[in-house]
């Protein structure tokens, strides 16, 4: 926190200089512009939850760091974990759809694919009062032209942590941070302890490098 306060002070000083001494209000506006330029944005996303143990630990770590994330939930995993879904919304995270049974939408009928999405939308709505419009199809297999009452935005990823292939936190962290760039969407899972540990280390490392974490909605639509 001290480093961020110092950075803001430096930017305010620089902003006053750049504004030609035209007052603090103008300087603050200029400082805000400089801060925006200094913080490339990326999104942390988590699939396959909620998990009764690991999702809660992840939410604790994100809250401590004041970092928003995007959670793509499996509908059947919401049952018994309704409190975690409500907490996600309360703490500013974006909640998305990951089908009800984690199925490949291209390998089932159109009616079954719609049901997988709608069942999960209903589960999320029951707990948040909001019907999600972002969906991450399992395996990245989105089925085009499915007819819903709301627009569903399929969300892919740029950085795959492959955290499900290993329980080695160090390897997961290295895989994520080595090639990350502005605008990337990082794919992780909140159903393993190693993934939670890695995600929080990734957050610390990338924040130290000047990245700002935002939700998928903020990254793609703003």
From TrEMBL:
<dbReference type="GO" id="GO:0016020">
    <property type="term" value="C:membrane"/>
</dbReference>
<dbReference type="InterPro" id="IPR050248">
    <property type="entry name" value="Polysacc_deacetylase_ArnD"/>
</dbReference>
<dbReference type="InterPro" id="IPR002509">
    <property type="entry name" value="NODB_dom"/>
</dbReference>
<dbReference type="InterPro" id="IPR011330">
    <property type="entry name" value="Glyco_hydro/deAcase_b/a-brl"/>
</dbReference>
<protein>
    <submittedName>
        <fullName>Peptidoglycan N-acetylglucosamine deacetylase</fullName>
    </submittedName>
</protein>
<dbReference type="GO" id="GO:0005975">
    <property type="term" value="P:carbohydrate metabolic process"/>
</dbReference>
<keyword id="KW-0479">Metal-binding</keyword>
<dbReference type="GO" id="GO:0046872">
    <property type="term" value="F:metal ion binding"/>
</dbReference>
<keyword id="KW-0378">Hydrolase</keyword>
<dbReference type="GO" id="GO:0016810">
    <property type="term" value="F:hydrolase activity, acting on carbon-nitrogen (but not peptide) bonds"/>
</dbReference>
<feature type="domain" description="NodB homology">
    <location>
        <begin position="40"/>
        <end position="214"/>
    </location>
</feature>
<dbReference type="Pfam" id="PF01522">
    <property type="entry name" value="Polysacc_deac_1"/>
</dbReference>
């Amino acid at each position: 926190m001290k480093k961020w306060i110092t950075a803001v002070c430096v930017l305010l000083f620089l902003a006053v200089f750049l504004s030609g001494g035209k007052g603090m209000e103008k300087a603050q506006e200029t400082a805000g512009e400089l801060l925006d330029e200094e913080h490339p944005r990326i999104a942390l996303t988590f699939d396959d939850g909620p998990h009764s143990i690991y999702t809660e630990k992840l939410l604790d770590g994100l809250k401590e760091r004041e970092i928003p994330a995007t959670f793509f939930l499996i509908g059947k995993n919401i049952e018994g974990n309704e409190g975690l879904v409500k907490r996600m919304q309360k703490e500013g995270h974006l909640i998305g759809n990951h089908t009800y049974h984690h199925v490949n939408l291209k390998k089932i009928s159109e009616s079954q694919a719609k049901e997988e999405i709608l069942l999960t939308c209903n589960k999320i709505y029951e707990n948040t009062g909001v019907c999600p419009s972002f969906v991450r199809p399992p395996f990245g297999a989105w089925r085009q032209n499915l007819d819903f009452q709301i627009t569903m935005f399929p969300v892919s990823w740029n950085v795959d942590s492959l955290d499900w292939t290993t329980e080695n936190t160090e390897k997961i962290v290295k895989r994520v941070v080595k090639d990350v760039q502005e605008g990337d969407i990082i794919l992780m899972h909140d159903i393993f302890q190693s993934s939670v540990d890695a995600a929080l280390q990734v957050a610390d490392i990338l924040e130290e490098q000047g990245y700002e974490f935002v939700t998928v909605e903020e990254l793609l639509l703003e």
